[in-house]
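Methods, example record. To illustrate the input and output format used throughout this study, we show the complete record for Sodium/calcium exchanger membrane region domain-containing protein. The sequence lines were provided to the predictor; the line carrying structure tokens was produced by it.
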Amino acid sequence: MDYKLQVGVQSHLEMGSLEDRSMQDLHDECLHSPETDARKNQITYSNELLPFSDGRLPVGRNNMIGHGVYRSIKTVVFSNKLNLLMPFGPLAILVHKLIAHNGWVFFLSLLGITPLAERLSYATEQLAFYTGPTIGGLLNATFGNATELIISIYALKSGMTRVVQLSLLGSILSNMLLVLGCAFFCGGLVYHRKEQVFNKATAVVNSGLLLMAVMGLLFPAVLHYTHTERQYGKSELSLSRFSSCVMLVAYAAYLVFQLKGQNDLYAPINEENLDDDDDDDDDDGDDDDDDDEAPEISKWESGIWLVILTAWISILSDYLVDTIEYVRLLEDHVCSH
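The corresponding predicted structure is encoded as:
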């Protein structure tokens, strides 16, 4: 009995020491566990972001917003060498206010609009990353011509119809011939081992819209130069207005068709599946993966920059058109004498 009692007491003492040791170890592990450290860091971080007693914004949030604004300005304004021409825009306004020399105002405004138009296209491309290829293409088509549209609106307000006509003609020729030809040429240089593939249905739709635009411009001109209208001046104007309304309706139908009707037609074509020699072009496939771009600014930053750049282009376009109007009035005055 004494032996059994001694063994029982000894085992009880050992279990007590193990319980004490396990409680101490558990306490130490809780003090130094990753979850506890993360919770401490979270509490410390939240204490740093607590608002001050006087109602000011948190310091951490101020630093975050300031860093985001600085990064956005650095990316949009200081990442392109063409932006060195941006100071010419405010300089044109100063010259107009101080000297009022229309020649210099026209030249400086033109130089100032050039980088703004390029940055407007850049902001549109950044926004297109978040909207998908279909809406992104529409944004590029819309805001890509925003500069010409703004200048044309100011010119129409000033009664310079000839300037609007020539601007429209230059835009049509540059997009149909220069831009399209450069796209084909550069595509042939970059993908010289591949055949450039285009969606047939998309090409048919775009060709139909192009034909309608050509007819809308051609018919009033033919009516004017052939003198076959019943009422001189009125029939030409009526046909021109009717053609413009038809083109607007056709563009609206095209938007509905592109956004809701046939989304799959505007999906990018996988040209790798169309190649016969896939084994020979494995390196090209790696290059295609490297060409995948990521947005450099956020969606809200892109929208804000679109508004800012459009406003600046509108201001400089007003000064640009004013100088053209002054030259036109000066020429009319000289011709009258």
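Annotations derived from this record:
Residues 75-193+208-266+296-336 form one domain.
The CA atoms of residues 134 and 266 lie 6 Å apart.
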